[in-house]
Amino acid sequence: MSQAALPGATVASLQRQSLLDPVDNRILLCHALGLSRMGLITQSERTLTEDEAARLSALIARRLAGEPVAYLIGRREFYGLDFAVDANVLIPRPETELLVELALERLPPRGRVLDMGTGSGAIAVALAHTRPDAAVTALDVSAGALAVAGRNAASNGATVRLLQSDWFGALQDDIFDLIVSNPPYIASGDRHLSEGDLRFEPAGALTDHADGLSALRRIVGGAPAHLVPGGWLLMEHGYDQSDAVQALLTAGGWQDVQSWHDLAGIARVTGGRAALR
Ligand code: GLN
């Protein structure tokens, strides 16, 4: 089958026969040849040059070894925007768009919002792009992630203040109207960490190396000092963590504690409002 990527193969033949999932195959073919989806159709009888064949073979080999397509092409779409991604950041997931939508519904005019553990900047950039009036701050402990987030803010024309910070560590007396986070929430040793795309993603973005709730606990514990009274805290979490996160919020005196379901019907985001002081 690697024969198929030899110079002389046509674009059409490479789409008919591949070891890869057809969608993955098409995306890698476009990437290796610098063609759009439409280009694959209009140039279907074109044969590959030696360079193109070498590029495509390398991409296919990496995909067959499990590397995520988003890392192979360095891009992923999120909330209708194009994001650069590399191994410094988690690949944005469609379920995280729920967190963006809930945040937008709660962001007051010229609202100040904080995204904790921004990674690629997907959430912060989606918010700033949709609501240019908002003052968006995004923090991450990883300098590599902040570099990616900065590029994504610029390429999407979004203004985001970036801060290197271990959770609340580098925040001074900043106060926000809204805090959002998609923190690492997979428990250490969870088998998902050694499966699929997750094997290639930064461990620090996926797992707290503990029970899966330690980052969520820190955020719930620290957020009241940085929220206006009545301000919302919204957190993404794992499929089985909504009860635990609700319990953390309730024990902390948060109001209106509730969870929201993603498109797969999984309770995916939990939040509450800071108590009125
Ligand atoms: N949703 C991701 C997954 O389960 C995990 C993201 C995270 O830990 N914040 O693949």
Descriptive terms for the model:
277 residues, two-stranded antiparallel sheet, 11 helices, alpha/beta, 7-stranded mixed beta sheet, binds glutamine, EC 2.1.1.297, Rossmann fold, 2 domains
Q: What do you see in this structure?
A:
The chain has helices at residues 11-16, 22-33, 37-42, 50-64, 69-73, 97-106, 122-130, 143-155, 203-206, 214-222, 242-251; strands at 75-78, 81-84, 112-116, 135-140, 160-164, 176-181, 227-236, 255-261, 267-273. With 277 residues, the protein is an alpha/beta fold. β3 (112-116), α7 and β4 (135-140) form a beta-alpha-beta unit. α2 packs antiparallel against α4. Residues 90, 93, 182-186, 198, 206 line the site of glutamine (GLN).
List the helices and strands and how they pair.
Layout lengths: L10 H6 L5 H12 L3 H6 L7 H15 L4 H5 L1 E4 L2 E4 L12 H10 L5 E5 L5 H9 L4 E6 L2 H13 L4 E5 L11 E6 L21 H4 L7 H9 L4 E10 L5 H10 L3 E7 L5 E7 L4
Parallel strand pairs: 3-4, 3-6, 4-5, 6-7
Antiparallel strand pairs: 1-2, 7-9, 8-9
The site of glutamine has 9 residues, from loops.
**CATH class call of the largest domain:** Alpha Beta
Q: How does the overall form come out from the CA principal axes?
A: elongated
Task: Count every helix, treating DSSP H or I runs of 4 or more residues as helices.
Answer: 11
Radius of gyration: 21 Å
H/E order of the elements? HHHHHEEHEHEHEEHHEHEE
Q: What's the mean pLDDT score?
A: 96
Largest sheet data? 7 strands, mixed
Number of domains: 2
CATH homologous superfamily title of the largest domain? Vaccinia Virus protein VP39
Sheet/helix structural class: alpha/beta
Beta content comes to 15-25%
Keywords: Methyltransferase, S-adenosyl-L-methionine, Transferase
Catalytic activity: L-glutaminyl-[peptide chain release factor] + S-adenosyl-L-methionine = N(5)-methyl-L-glutaminyl-[peptide chain release factor] + S-adenosyl-L-homocysteine + H(+)
EC number: 2.1.1.297
Protein name: Release factor glutamine methyltransferase
